[in-house]
Structure prediction request, 355 residues.
Amino acid sequence: MRYLMVAAVVTVCVATANAEHVDVAPPPRPVVLATIESSLPTAGGQIRQFAFDADSATHFASERNPMKDDSVTIRFDEPVEFTAARWITGRSEATDLPAKSWVTEVSHDGKTFEPFVSAKPGDALKKPSIRAVRLRVTQDMKQPLVVREIALDTTPRVVPFRYPVEIALDVTDAPEMKEWGDNVVRICERQYPKICDELMSEGYRPMTQIRMTLKKDYGGVAAAGGGRITGSVKYFKARPDDIGAMVHETVHCVQNYRGRNLPSWLVEGIADYIRFWRYEPGKAGRLQPERARYDASYRTTAAFLAYVSDKYDPALVTKLNTMLRQGKYDPGIWKTLTGKSVEELNQEWRQSLVR
Prediction:
């Protein structure tokens, strides 16, 4: 199969002023996060985020041939000064697509787009005002589109995707849930690198594709396994604000434990720890000391993990996750990591809950 190949560089020359040298460490450069979308469906595992992951060995490929007005769009969390873009496309360096076949466009509001016009050399940049940039096809094509990498020159710098992922939404059972589901997908994709950072272990490669399906006949809240998340239409229609439940299931996709006989209370506790102490801190609620126990699972175990992490080892959850992923969890690890048994930690934690 042949693929559409595009290569273009759009640049703006910017005047810079001399700065007096100061022998101090420069402050951290501000950065901006982004999302990427396309009107073109993804072919196989060649997901959208591969087009902006700083790795030319990966690429986004469209499932079908692009038609006029199909596009690939990067949206910025905050306005940026946009000075240059380079679309590195095709499976290898080859012929350029004729200029009339595509155009680079920018948007000030994230909704309406206009062709990007380079400023003249020496022109001062306007204040940060660009919210999105896209490649828009201007005529029907006879082969799929491949984008190996998008190189952006912006201020602040836009950060490439460190753990590329694409969550495909299936709302066949409830088309009316599409807007809600699209929002959940955006949130879970945004949380994905944070989850991966917390649960990374040596040699582990997170999955890059997850399928999220909303089912009318599913009796629970949500569940995950094998890169698939299933959610209850009835539950989320009644509780549309409970997006954290889907973040919890996304954590399970990152955990991806393969060992047998792992303590389920700890598996679920870690997922709720990420949810309630990273995604939506402060929403776990209060616990009754007389009923609290470390192995009660979900948010109760999450609260226990938070206590032990804060007092003994900030990397506790990461270390526990590594042992679970390797199938080597042993209750004795608590003594190794903290100097106390899990039962001793449990009593100490419960006492801390007494008001």
Notes: The two ends are 68 Å apart (CA to CA). The CA atoms of residues 180 and 328 lie 39 Å apart.
